[in-house]
Specification:
By secondary structure, the chain is an alpha+beta fold. It has three domains: 51 residues, Uridine Diphospho-n-acetylenolpyruvylglucosamine Reductase, domain 2 (2-Layer Sandwich), CATH 3.30.43.10; 109 residues, 2-Layer Sandwich (Uridine Diphospho-n-acetylenolpyruvylglucosamine Reductase, domain 3); 202 residues, Vanillyl-alcohol Oxidase, Chain A, domain 3 (3-Layer(aba) Sandwich), CATH 3.40.462.20. Helices cover 23% and strands 25% of the residues. The strands form four sheets. Strands 14-11-13-12-16-17-15 form a seven-stranded antiparallel β-sheet. The protein has a five-stranded antiparallel β-sheet with strand order 6-7-10-8-9. A three-stranded parallel β-sheet has the order 2-5-3, covered by helices on one side. α6 crosses α8. The longest helix has 14 residues. It is globular, with a radius of gyration of 21 Å. The two termini are 33 Å apart.
Length: 419
Amino acid sequence: MNSYGAADTVVHARTAADVAGAIHHARDTGIALTVRNGGHSIARHSTAHGGLLLDVRGLNGMTVLDRSQGLVRVGAGATWGLVAKRLAPYGLAISAGDTASVGVGGLTLGGGIGWMVRRYGLAIDAVVAAEVVTADGRVRTVDARHDPDLFWALRGGGGNVGVVTRLDFVAARVSEVVTGSIAYDPGEPHALVRGWRDHLRASDDRLTTILSIVPETPAGPPRTVVQWCFSEPDRAAAERATAGLREIAGVVADDTAVVPYADVLEEHEMPEGMQVAMRNALVPALSDDCIDAALALRGGAPTVVAFRGLGGALDWVAPDATAFAHRDAEAMVLAARMAPPGAPTPSFDAPTDDWAAVARHGTGAYVGFLDQAGPDDVASVYPPATYARLAAVKAAYDPGNLFRRNHNVVPVREGAPTL
């Protein structure tokens, strides 16, 4: 996922002017434009097959603009691990992602679900301004008062309306957190997931948890584990918040530590050429039927099934305030299959697979964890009203659909008929 592919031209941008120049060249010559940030696109939107690849990793500066307000400016090409480490001396942190090597721009534009989502919301909820280069090559600074429609679209629109070069965030006052994992006997997953779900519904908003059920692989035996992060360094409060998780089923391992927030982000790089099939659903209510349907996917090819706790601060923002509309999600259900280079391509299309039985319980999907980008996938990311508004913003700022190497929203002017 991290290679350049077969791009005819690669531009390593160091400034917004470099980005504008690349955009002018792509638009004037008609060649395809691919934007590469951290290189973690599950749908392989970070690799080019011909055309121009615009690599923005050189836009990686970071400045604390106002420590008292937590206002920080971050280059879109920085990684979240770098940002977390640089903010640590200031006692600040931004809830964003799980992986240190993921790029700031790519993750934020899709929403940004991180280890403190239930306390501080999505990464986009901390964004107060952005510098973006639009399809006309113009460098714009946007916020709630300047180009507000464009600012709305950037926060969740997945790169459809421009190339972001920097973002201004209001960081949370977080230095250390309490984190840990609880491993269970994998023998009765249905009861375990139900117990985790019931705990989530009464959970402290400072606590974010992920329950993962991992099959046996050449790398190790099957395992069932809850990973968690409590967004304050209060170990006693964290123990109280997680106590119910230890009463669900047979606990076989349990660890807890107070660590700098930066240490929560994993150092994880996907092996070169690794093939991934991934689906997810954002569900307003994690019902027993949804749980059963998700666990049934393990009956075919080896499958990781994970349940991510949401709610809390995610739901404190109105669904139409940003282009991420799934604010009422109680949980994310995710299924993943992987295969090394040369092996049969993994998928969820076998006769024994029924992802639709899971998806019907949700309102849609999170763009960051989708391996495909067809019309149905795009429709799952953006509900009709959100899609229509995005299409109108797209028509205003990218009428020629230059930025189409993404979960693409087709430009349609407001009020125009749609198919």
